[in-house]
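Hi P.,

Sorry for the delay on this. The queue was packed all week, but I finally got your sequence through. Input first:
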Amino acid sequence: MGPAQKSLASPSQPQSERLQRDFQAAVAAYASKQYAEAERTLQPVIAARPNSFEVNELAGLVYVAEGHDEKANRYLRRAVRINPTAVAAVTALAANLIRLHRNTEAEVELRRAVVLQPASNEVNHNLGEFYAQSGKLAEAIPYLKRAQELSPSDYNNGYDLALTYEQTGQIAPAQWQLEGLITIHDTAELHNLLGEVAEKSNNYVLSVTQYEQAARMDPSEGNLFDWGAELLLHQAFEPAFAVFQAGLARYPRSLRLQMSRGIALLGLGRFDEAAEAFCQASDLNPADPLPLIFLGKSSDSFSARALENVRKRMQRFAESGVHNASVDYFYAINLVKSQQDGSSTASQAEIESLLKNVVALDPTYADAYVELGKLYAAKQEYGDAIEQYQHALKIDPGNANAHYRLGQALGRTGDKTAALKEFSEYERLHQRQVADDQTREGSIQKFVYTMRSSGAGAR
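Then the structure:
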């Protein structure tokens, strides 16, 4: 029964014309979204008819609309107590309890609604969505599925069902659900989700096709990123670069599009252009360490001029007061390289300070201990160098560089047997590491999944 149809009249207890008039005025005010007026008009009716289902239900709805959930709860609970079979009131109470973070009670009411109206698409969807939002995905599916059977064209329920299938690893049902729903509602959102589902089934062709379709229908920042990122995942760097270029023309301040462009350029071997792309990403948000971390990881491929631009961004970050172990580490490495090519006059003490800051921020940063060891070895302080290398190997026994450097330092101290053992371990690890380095797939996947999960830089 809608608000305009409500009445206080009762065959056994006729209501005064004044109360009836006030109630109908409150109904009209609520319907026209004049909630303060509805509340004011309803007050004398509540006082006169505290046990009326219609009065309590309307009062609860008015307080919900005003954002007064605690007050609303009192009236909605009373309405349901008076008429426990009123599904609309039960549903309103459940929604109110969810907003009050009283999920256990909300579940009871939502389940009650399903018992009262098992053939209702809405009440089945509400319970399924509640379970999905609560992380109880397996429990959500039967209700979402039942709601879909009752109303196959229901877009929201259909999307939720497909998403829940996908999140529980039921990839084939998710794909069937989406493909069926697309025939009714052809939206970019559905194509995007189908792209994600196809990716999880290792159907690369379908995945790229669906992400592309979503981006063409709705060239949002997110859809363009997903299309380009899928191309990146399969190392299709040239078309990925084109997608990110087009995306940046629309969204020039998107951090993740700019960074993704940098990844594509690295894949194409255009290293200095990649460095510039990451530098531009850092300029978009100087406090974000991620572009600088990618610059640091790729710095071996950059020219001296590109490294100078990288160093300026890292220096800016360091001087901002923001601390990040990886950025400090790569800044120290950059300064070492700049010393070697004569482009910087950074002191050993400055580099040592940066590296000590790295291990203070992250005591498990094995590579920083290796670099400290190299600094001490350069000063012929081999005992200190050995200590740093051994510390690194306690953290990361598979660190080939640490084994090699430790072997050198042990040789300098005359321990030839121990040195040969470290060199042997280095050779074993180095061969495996070279093989691992032949593929960029792992690092690209990590980047894509990080960007997708965080939505970083979306503007």
